[in-house]
Amino acid sequence: MIGPNLQKDLFDILLRFRAHEFVLTADIAAMFQQILHQRRTWPFAVYVNLLVVAAEDAEFPQAAEALNRDFYMDDVLTGTDTIEKAIALRQILQRGQFNLRKWRSNDDKILESISQNREVDPLLTIDQEGALKTLGILWDAKFDVLKYKVFIDESPRRTKRVVLSTIAQIFDPPGLLAPVLVNAKSIMQRMWQLPIGWDESLPQDLQASWEQYYGSFSKINDMHISRNINPKNYEVRFDLIGFSDASERAYGACIYAVSRDSQGIMNSHLISSKSQVALLKTISLPKLELNAALLLAKLCNTAKAAFGDKIRNIALWSDSTIVLSWIATSPNMCKTYVANRVTQIQDLTREASWLHVPSQDNPADLISRGMSVEEWMQSKQWWHGPAWLTTGEWPKRREIDMDTSEMKVAAVLAVTRMTCDALKDFSSFDKMQRQVPKGSKLAPLSPYLDDDGVIRVGGRLSRANISETKKHPIILPDRHHVTKILLKREHQRLLHCGSEQLLHSIRQRYWVLNGRRESQKVTRSWVECYRRNPKSLEVTMGDLPQERVRGSLKPFTNNAVAIHALAPGLLR
Description:
Elements: H1 10-17, E1 22-28, H2 42-56, H3 61-69, E2 71-72, E3 75-80, H4 83-94, E4 100-105, E5 123-126, E6 135-140, E7 145-150, H5 160-168, H6 178-193, H7 204-215, E8 224-226, E9 238-246, E10 250-260, E11 266-277, H8 285-307, E12 311-318, H9 321-327, H10 336-348, E13 353-356, H11 365-369, H12 373-378, H13 380-384, H14 388-391, H15 429-434, E14 448-449, E15 455-456, H16 468-471, E16 474-476, H17 481-493, H18 499-506, E17 510-512, H19 515-525, H20 527-532, H21 546-549, H22 560-565
Parallel strand pairs: 9-12, 12-13, 16-17
Antiparallel strand pairs: 1-3, 1-4, 2-3, 5-6, 6-7, 7-8, 9-10, 10-11, 14-15
């Protein structure tokens, strides 16, 4: 039986790694050789051993937290907010049951007492599998920056297999390259629509688009990205600000950390982003914007779980007033597509505020439109968000009008009681009767209004020695709810009688139009009556006698005497 995944997610570890002021990394030497388990159970055994060490160091909660949350396989990426805590953390990790080596830190003071196990190379390759990558992410401990390392394939022939393989090898877990990579996803989507084989060359126009895009990839090597998204913030806590946007081509979301440093200066740094290309099936732009908002809600929820108490306030922004009105609406009022996504968004962002941002100030717009490498490297809006994040002058809150385009159509039935005196305008019964059309169902019943304004059957039984209700029963319409429940009640009172008995009984007080049909509907629709209704047995008839099936005999052969006896005779 497959159990839960005990391994911590690399994405969560990277998010926490970027929020520390002082960080250190190391790996466990020959980790899997130190554990006597079957090869397929090594990851589980490693995780259990880390939990044991964490439990033993319960008096040092920060070290225990690092062991529980910041190990990915045999690598640890952790940190603290002060040098003293970082040194203590490193010492506690060294006291564990594993031999830690290849230490790196953004401050040499943290590793002063380590000489033999320090890593000479300051570059840490952050990789999920260790396989060859077209693009991989590195951390430069000396300058405390993140870098990308791009491997360019000089193969002159661009086939579907080569291009898809190249796109699949791009490794960017934080999503910092989302505006650039969305172009690759768009090219990949276009390739899947073309009827070409795996090893066939791409069409000229698509190959030109890929060459222009892929040719600029090498410039990414020159980009240095600050690792620390919460610099010199001794309060540690920061605000989480998110944005979402969509176009007919793609949609995406990005989140920022906004904090104040020790000198009172506001800082804003990109934490992470997610992007997806729009479906080939055409849907409306507001629904794509809703998908972008859901993507932002999921990204925000992941960041909230990774950062924990470090997050102070959460504000999420969208430039779609329609989506904001849907999010503020109860899901049960919306149609299925919108209701399902609004429910998820509301569940994931209970502690967040949803606000409207002008389109020109929305950094997620860069994801939905895509960017070249040069634009990506120079865009302040992408790396730091809109300028008002650091000035505190947020856009004025906009009143959102309710959008009803995706609301369920509610059927409202208004019932009013009206007194109809139209029949009282006639001076005689004959005049009133002439007003009933000859083709009406009421015409044969000679209807009249009694003193209470109830329509009753007329007829010729006024001198009969029976009750008035039998002489002049109340007329009830067919296919009416009141008629149906009256018939059901009478059917139950008579212990589920047949339709004819039901009709006879109800006519003692009421005359139902098309009464036989209505009574049959009640008896046939009752489940118990249907199950208990016995089926009549069909008796198979016997064979015909021999005299009737012998075809060689002439007519009246067996009845000749009788026929002769009936012949006319002569009488004298």
